[in-house]
């Protein structure tokens, strides 16, 4: 085995659209889901990740490699996460939070959730519904009542655009 | 109105774990808009606010407007639907101006009480450290502490009480205060003010319950007169 020859162990991950990725085991076990597979000895061949597509997995692996290369310094890790997420659009963030949840990577999950919350700030209700694919199921009366309750919040929120 | 399907992301299946996680990270105003998205999100928001919350912040910024903005941003940086707001300001600030600035950022219907205090103690918005300032000992008398509270399933009312009513409690250290409640502003000198908490009979289901307990404490250091409750009544609505 690789571990015996002193070279780092490499795992092969397969996305749900059949892309294969090589990643160092030391980085991949940031995912508790993958770590459990490794510990149970079922990571020998290809690890299929049925809930993650290739594009998202590539991004997650970039993050795994990046964050595991940083020594135990929470400040530096945080600034890496901020930089890593800074140029991601909403759709990518949503894919990543699903992947992080599936892979059980709490540090990525927390960071992406916070980033999504940050993006949602100051966005209109219409924007949130569109982006999350949510149907407004309030009756007009109910909606008016909830709106009345939260009237104070609508100052400073964008009216209803997409950005 | 409807956009192309390609741009619409169907992450309604983001799951029952992830949405509450994200919504609980929103600041108060965005959190309130989230309740408007759909019934399910409203329920999630109510769950996140199922226990009483109190947030407070201190600013020693010499500009009243900046000081108010700083403390408001801080106390509204987490999910809360303020039921009442209490503020104490340094003697150099003007009560009426402080009230207008605070009210601008909060629901005009909730009780807001602003008083001139002898000092402030609390967490500084800039350093996140506890600060204690007594105006009498300092030349600088600018500063504000703002506290907002939320109690699930409870409605908060404000009452002014006058000495002839015979039940004012307090040390008189803040004899100057101004209150705003139900679109009415009252500048009060001799009166006292009380907040009345009542069970909200119209509260939507799924909202938590708030329980009140009464205790006496002389505190860790005795700085002023001590008080006793003459009477505590527990009345059915």
UniProtKB/TrEMBL annotation, chain A:
Q: Does the keyword Cell wall biogenesis/degradation apply?
A: no
Q: Which InterPro entries match?
A: SKP1, SKP1-like, SKP1-like_dim_sf, SKP1/BTB/POZ_sf, Skp1_comp_dimer, Skp1_comp_POZ
Single GO cellular component annotation? nucleus
Metabolic or biological pathway, per its Swiss-Prot or TrEMBL entry: Protein modification; protein ubiquitination
Where the record annotates domain SKP1 component dimerisation, the positions are 108-152
Q: Which domain of life is it from?
A: Eukaryota
Q: Does the keyword Phosphoprotein apply?
A: no
Q: Where is the SKP1 component POZ domain?
A: 11-65
Q: Which GO terms describe its biological process?
A: jasmonic acid mediated signaling pathway; protein ubiquitination; SCF-dependent proteasomal ubiquitin-dependent protein catabolic process
The UniProt function text for this chain reads: Involved in ubiquitination and subsequent proteasomal degradation of target proteins. Together with CUL1, RBX1 and a F-box protein, it forms a SCF E3 ubiquitin ligase complex. The functional specificity of this complex depends on the type of F-box protein. In the SCF complex, it serves as an adapter that links the F-box protein to CUL1.
Q: How does it assemble?
A: Part of a SCF (SKP1-cullin-F-box) protein ligase complex.
Protein name stated in the entry: SKP1-like protein
Q: Which organism is it from?
A: Erythranthe guttata
From TrEMBL, chain B:
Question: Pfam families this protein is in?
Answer: F-box-like
Instruction: State the protein's name.
Output: F-box domain-containing protein
Q: Gene3D superfamilies per the record?
A: 1.20.1280.50
Q: Which residues form the F-box domain?
A: 16-47
Q: Which PANTHER family match?
A: F-BOX ONLY PROTEIN 22 (PTHR14939)
Tell me the leader sequence span.
none
Give the organism the record lists: Erythranthe guttata
Q: What biological processes does GO assign it? A: positive regulation of proteasomal ubiquitin-dependent protein catabolic process; protein polyubiquitination
Q: Write down the superkingdom of origin.
A: Eukaryota
